[in-house]
Every structure is written in C-alpha cells, then in structure tokens.
Specification:
Length: 400
C-alpha cells in the first residue's frame, strides 16, 4: 500500500472533524476564561496550552519566552510554511458577567476574546496533527503572550525567530460588534499604529486667591488640551485617518491651591508612516508655544506603539474566497479599518499576513458589550466559525 500524498488532505474530512471538536473547543475556552492572566504573566495559561499540545502527536513544542508557546507541525513532505497566531493574554479588569465560567482570578478577565483565539488554535492543532501524514509543509502555531501591553509579545517572538522560514501568517480576532455568523477581511491597512504620549506642564503653585503670583498649570493645560484638538482638524489631511485623544488630565489637591504641575497623557492613532512621524512634532510645537507664552515649562514624551496592521491584498483576496466558499458570500461583512491597534503587525514585517475578524456578538442573547468592558462576552458559536475558517485557510495555503 502506498502512503497517501499531500494532495489527499481532504478539506471535507477536516471540516467534519472540526464539527466533532466543537464542544472541546468551548471547554478549552471556558477553562481559559476562568483562569485569565494579564500580559507577561501568562504562566498558567502557557502551561495549560503546553499540556494540551503535549498530548497531541507529531508536534514539536518550544517555549520561546517564559509565557509563550510555539508548536511546529511538520508534514510528511516538504512544502509551504504557514504560521497561525493566537494571542493568549487577559486584561486587568474585574469581570461583571454572571456566567458559570466567570473569572476566578480577581482583577483579571478575558475581556477581549483571546481565550477564544487560543481555544480555536488548539482546535486547529488537534485537527491538523491527526492528519500529519497527509500534510505537506509545516504549520507553526504561535501562542503569543502580551498582545494587550506595549511593547507586546509579538516583537519578542519575531526576534526569537518564530517567523524564520514562514511563507504566510494568519490570525483572527473574535469581534463582538459583528453578529455571529459573519466575518470580515480588510485588504490593506486594517488596524492603526497606537502610539502614546505624556506631558507634564510645570508652572508655579500658590494660593488660589492670589492667582497673579502663580503660573497656573491647570489653565495652561486646558489650553493645551484645546489646541491639541486642532492637530487632527487643522493640520492633517482629512483623507488621512488620524486620532489624537487626551485621556488623562491630572492636577491639583485642594480647592484653594493652584498646583505646581499638571499631567496629561493620551494616544495617537495613524496608518500613514509619514504622518506618524509628523504628529509628535506638531504636538510639541503647540505645547511649547502655549507653555512658553505663559511662562511655564513642559516635558513631553512620545512612545511609538505597534506598527499598523496591513493585510496583504493578494492574500486577503485569496482568503476572502476561502471564507466565501466556506460560509457563503452573504456571510462576508464589508468592513472598514479600525483605529485600534494589534501587534499582529510584527509578524507582517516578516511575511505576508492576514488578520481576520470573526463576528461574535448576539443582540438577542445580550452579547452586546464592547471589547474591554467588564461584561464583555462572546457567542460561543463564533468559536466553531473561527475554527472552520482557520481549517479552510490553512488547508488552502498548504495545498494550493
Ligand atoms: Ni484583543
């Protein structure tokens, strides 16, 4: 008897197996949901992933960092190398959702759906490892720590070599604002670069009743906040997406004291690399002008966050076809880019990649809360959809 060739890896068989794995994927997700760990502290999570993977055949498992896991599934024959990325971290949020699988770790919660991403990738590893002998090429499962916290886990894993030799990289995000049963793929720029800034304005404190003897950092800070609104509205091409949000303004301790300093911080979101470079200069120019004008001083720091997620157009078109064949064209949601950030972009520096969005909301079941909300949840039927998409995508990329 001759061994089957790689071309015989049947998508129908895989999808049939995926359906049988549905309850297991939900069980994995609920376990992870009950035991959330925040970025760079995912020790138990990584161990759990490691244990599940260790029970599967043909995987070679490594731990590139303390809280990440990478599993390589080398097929019988040589071929394409496809990386599949799942992020595994939770958020420092106290869960308010009243579900049996509610978080058992106080102050930590899977409020972004990364528990689901991890469960889906475990499902994919289970399915593909069982068919290793019909597989040509390699599937590399990247269970990445710390997506939620800059500098992020992706960059560390890329530096550790997890993308070496990879031809294509795919990832997904469960998306609560999209109904379950639908999914979206954005060609080109998909998620913004999330940069951050801090500014301390130092004046001269004093008695609130004697303002002329002070340099009031609150009054100056208020003008800085107002002026910074003009960066987007008056200094940036309206056709170039850009956000400047000031999210912290901290100053003062008492009603009758003008404080010495005021602290501001916030975030800037862009897609355009040239614009991304200009924004901090524009901001500082305004801050300098206003503070100097009132005799105050300032300290301004600006930190670059993740690069923007830019989906490879050819690969996006191909995977949109795959998704349409799997779920029907009516399931494909036309999506606009998001000003949110994602460190999936780090992998895209090394190989063409596509980051897909899988609908996970359900208004009639009250699954309506935004990502990072204490009552965030997902419709667990989205896990099966995510898995079937991943099965179809990896099958296509390996065999075509
Ligand atoms: Ni997320």
């Amino acid at each position: 008897m001759t061994a089957p060739t790689a071309a015989q890896l049947s998508l129908d068989t895989l999808q049939h197996d995926a359906a049988a794995l549905r309850d297991q994927v939900i069980a994995w997700r609920r376990h992870l949901h009950q035991h959330p760990e925040v970025s760079f502290s995912e020790h138990g999570t990584a161990q759990y992933i490691h244990d599940v993977l260790s029970a599967l055949p043909h995987l070679s498992i490594t731990r590139p960092t303390a809280t990440s896991v990478v599993a390589r599934l080398a097929g019988r024959d040589a071929g394409r190398v496809i990386a599949v990325r799942a992020d595994i971290d939770a958020l420092p949020i106290e869960e308010e959702a009243d579900v049996p699988w509610r978080s058992k770790n106080r102050g930590a919660m899977h409020a972004c759906g990364h528990d689901g991403h991890t469960a889906i990738a475990l499902g994919l590893a289970t399915l593909l490892s069982a068919h290793r002998d019909q597989l040509a090429g390699e599937v590399r499962f990247i269970f990445q720590h710390a997506e939620e916290l800059s500098p992020g886990g992706a960059e560390q894993l890329v530096n550790a070599g997890v993308m070496d030799g990879v031809h294509e990289v795919i990832g997904l995000h469960l998306w609560a604002s999209m109904p379950t049963g639908r999914m979206g793929l954005i060609s080109g720029p998909a998620m913004a670069a999330p940069d951050t800034f801090q500014c301390t304005i130092t004046g001269r404190g004093g008695h609130a009743a004697i303002p002329h003897d002070t340099i009031d950092p609150i009054a100056i800070g208020a003008q800085v906040v107002t002026a910074l609104q003009q960066v987007v509205s008056r200094m940036v091409d309206p056709l170039d997406p850009c956000v400047v949000s000031i999210t912290q303004f901290i100053a003062g301790t008492a009603f009758n004291v003008i404080p010495n300093s005021a602290y501001l911080s916030g975030t800037v979101r862009t897609f355009n690399a040239e614009l991304r470079k200009q924004i901090p200069q524009r901001m500082e120019q305004l801050i300098r002008g206003i503070t100097e004008g009132f005799g105050a001083t300032y300290e301004f720091t600006y930190e670059l966050g993740y690069r923007p997620v830019v989906n490879d157009p050819a690969l996006t078109a191909r995977l949109t076809d795959v998704a349409a064949r799997t779920f029907g064209t009516e399931a494909i949601e036309p999506m606009r880019p998001s000003m949110g950030g994602e460190d999936f972009s780090a992998y895209q520096q090394r190989a063409p990649g596509v980051f897909a969005f899988i609908g996970a909301g359900n208004v009639s079941e009250g699954i309506v809360f935004a990502h990072h909300h204490p009552r965030f949840s997902i419709d667990e039927r989205s896990l099966d959809i995510g898995l079937r998409y991943m099965v179809a995508a990896t099958h296509d990329l390996l065999t075509a």
